[in-house]
Amino acid sequence: MEFFHRAKVVRLRSQHNKFLTACDDEEGVKQTRHGSSKAARWAVETVEGKPNVIRLKSCQTWKYLSASDDHFLLGMTGKKVLQASPRARSDPIVEWEPLKEGSWVRLRTRKGNFLRANGGIPPWMNSVTHDVPSRSATQDWVLWMVDILEVDYQSGPLVKEDDGADHHDQTAGEGGNLDHEEGLSRSSSYSSTMNTVEKIGSDDR
Fold it and tell me: pLDDT of 30-76, one tens digit each?
């Protein structure tokens, strides 16, 4: 959960160096290299009574990232990841549990599957499903890098350092928006788990 501690808006970068992106049809989700796109930005919401669970809402369509029960392809284990209406806000299908794995994070559904960025040839190429990888070659496909774009400085004034001392975070300007030319101030626990926030659009080459 520390990856999303006080995060307000994030991007999720897959092992294929592509970003989780909301499709224009306001229904599907895919991977693209357009990290500067608004469709690649996701607002983070906490879930009352579930401190280790979050929701992710598209900053483009304002719909929630959801784990459906529909199979991506008939006969295959992977299931569709879709955009769910805001009316589904209280539905567990839009809830994800972040699990730290080194400097990466896995996002687990309520049923134990993981958000997976698929590779290979169409129709798998650039698709996003939720599944439990059964082959070692695809184990890393459920790992995501979290790029924090905006921080909520009102969610808590202090961060506990490893040495037991309390330290105030540095502000990143009015409204909590990060200047993309500067690094994100973080505690020592973050320095081992997060990349420095990159300038938006630096990946669109």
Answer: 999 999 999 999 999 999 999 999 999 999 999 999 999 999 986 57
* Tokens read off for 103: 């400097």
Strands 128-131 and 144-151: unpaired
Helix, strand, or coil here: 153? coil
Q: In the chain, which stretches have pLDDT less than 50?
A: 157-205
Phi-psi region of 169 (alpha: psi -120 to 50; beta: other; left: phi over 0): beta
Q: How far apart are CA 172 and CA 151, in angstroms?
A: 8
Q: Read off the tokens for 131.
A: 């599944």
Question: At residue 40, what are phi and psi to the nearest 5 degrees?
Answer: -95, 5
Contact status, residue 95 vs residue 86, Cβ threshold 8 Å? no
Helix ranges, the chain (H): 188-191
Rounded distance between C-alpha atoms, residue 108 and residue 131, angstroms? 9
Question: CA torsion sign, 161 to 166 to 170 to 171?
Answer: positive
* Angstrom distances, CA of residue 124 to CA of 30, 49, 133, 135, 186: 10, 36, 14, 15, 37
